[in-house]
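Record 1 of the preview.
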Amino acid sequence: MLMRTDPFRELDRLAQQLMSTGTWSRPSAMAMDAYREGDEYVVAFDLPGVSAEAIDIDVERNMLTVKAERRPVAKADDVQMELSERPLGVFSRQIVLADTLDTEQIKADYDAGVLTLRIPIAERAKPRKIAIGGGSDRKEISG
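->
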C-alpha cells in the first residue's frame, strides 16, 4: 500500500493538537449549532467521546455555561499508541440568553455524542391579544 505524507500538514496537525488541549483554567471551545424550533430555542453541542457524567451545565441569570471533559481512555500496559488525533481535555462554551427565554424550563438531552438543550420562550414574550375595554365609564368635565 502506498502512503503519501505531507510533513507540513503533520506539523500543523501536531501544533493544533498541542495548542488546543483545554484545561479547567483555559478550556477549548466546542462546536455548536443554535436555531429556533416553534416556541423554543435549540442549542446542540458536539461532544463525541464524552460521558454524560463529565458534562456540567449551569445557568446564572442569563448566562448559560456548558463544560465538558474528555479524558484519555484507560489502556492496558501492553498497548502502544500508534496515532492519537482526538483532542482531550476540557471544553467550554458560554452563551448569553435573551430575557425572553424561560431559563427555569431548560431541558437537556445527550445522545450519540450530541448534547441538545431546549430552551422555551417565556410566556410573557409570546404574542398575545389585548382586549379593549368598553367606553361606558366616560365622564364629562364641565366648567
